[in-house]
Amino acid sequence: MQHIFLESKRLVLYQIPIYEQANHVSQWYSITEKKNQVNIGFIGMVHCHPEWNNTGVQIIISKEENRREGYALEALELLEQYVFEALFYQRIAVKIIDFNKPAIALFKKAGYKLEGVQEQGFYCRDKYYDFILLRLLRHEYLRRMEKLHIFL
Length: 152
Hints:
The chain is an alpha+beta fold.
């Protein structure tokens, strides 16, 4: 039986075994729809630095038909809750290839702020692309949660 990490109305995040490298840890979770127990994709804390209280995040929604259904945002909100409220981290960062406009829009909708651009930071098929760097700080997350609870 898999360990249940967090759950919302529609989703459950199941923990996948920890992957460790020399200077950081990555922790991935499968995103599973509760109703049908169907795997939709994965969300991961990548380049996690507990000693610095920060992590990166990546989201993969495997099938095209599951995209633009709100699953990624819902999974991101669950992971943010864990990162900021349980781990007490100070920062979540994300690097997105500039042509992935839906992902950039998703993180901006979630309140992530533009931190900068890593010009020509990604090379694929004989072409260089920019990375868009976004981040969310703990105090910004907490402020957002306060506003949401006021209107509930």
